[in-house]
Amino acid sequence: MEIIAYGVLADERPLLREAFDQAFGGHHEPRCLKLFLNRDTAPTAAGHEVVLSSVNDTLDAEVLRDLAMGGTKMIAQRATGYNNIDLAAAREHGLTVARVSYYSPHSVAEFAWALALAVNRRIVRAAHRTREFDFRLDGLMGRDLNGRTAGVVGTGKIGTVFARIAHGFGMRLLGWDIAENPGCVALGMEYVPKERLFAESDLVSLHVPLTPETYHLVNADMLGLMRENAVLVNSSRGGLVDTDALLATLRAGRLSGVGLDVYEEEAGVFFLDKSLEVMTDERLARLMTFPNVLVTSHQAYFTRDAVGQIAAATVRSIEDYFANRTSDDTLLRHGR
């Protein structure tokens, strides 16, 4: 069986190959490509029964049609989110689709805190200064987190770990989700309407999936409710934040800091070297100009632990496909 993987990062490749070797003993080696899957690159999948996709690949109706016509029967997404896959079209073409429903929640939660601490304590600006032997403290004053309020939007596995860390800092916890998580309640979290969460929190961190209901959850109205010196962190999905509304808020001098590991138009930019090109995305370029904004390139999940677990889960989904069985990672199932 031919297997092709798209958007494979250099540090990910050995972990992916190790997972395949352990499961198949070298009988099924994936063809690993750096390029992303989209309408232009879909023809490269011809003859490959299984496609391993990444979160920044485009699997719309046209791409899925081309994949099916080329002989693809299964798509295994190496991520938890799958908003980039047109499931209705996949069903129409008889494709099996799987994703990774679980990997280390600590990887993302810890990175979200790294963003929060970095923007609160002006660490990036301080590092740039000291590299030039400028050791002044002007403009670097932050705030204690102890005793302040953390608003956790989405209290699943990652949100719960984030809340535990906030509890360790001695913060008051507010939460918003479709259902209360007993583990968060045990930490003292109070579940409130999202409007109250945004209005009362000193730090808001996003941990919900991107769905039609959560698209632009953080819009002008929600940003208008936030305290002027609050911190916003998004390590989940870029589409949760209305970038235009965020830019307007920042231009008005509101928000103490913003940490973004994701961006709603990141496809075709993140994971790539654009240093020698003109940045044509004016909104992203504008975000970079604010001294209180830190943008990273969707790396919150990127630990050896998490990537290894993602690779192992992807291989298990392929084994399930071989055996005509399903698991919690299966989104669509069709026979071989």
UniProtKB/TrEMBL annotation:
Pfam family, one: 2-Hacid_dh_C
Boundaries of every D-isomer specific 2-hydroxyacid dehydrogenase catalytic domain copy: 13-328
UniProt xrefs under CDD domains: LDH_like_2 (cd12183)
Keyword Oxidoreductase: yes
Keywords for the protein's UniProt record, in alphabetical order: NAD, Oxidoreductase
Name listed for the protein in its UniProt record: 2-hydroxyacid dehydrogenase
Record family assignment: Belongs to the D-isomer specific 2-hydroxyacid dehydrogenase family.
Keyword Nucleotide-binding included in the entry's annotation: no
Classification via InterPro entries: D-isomer_2_OHA_DH_cat_dom (IPR006139), D-isomer_DH_CS (IPR029753), D-isomer_DH_CS1 (IPR029752), D-isomer_DH_NAD-bd (IPR006140), D-LDH-like (IPR058205), NAD(P)-bd_dom_sf (IPR036291)
Residues in D-isomer specific 2-hydroxyacid dehydrogenase NAD-binding domain copies: 114-300
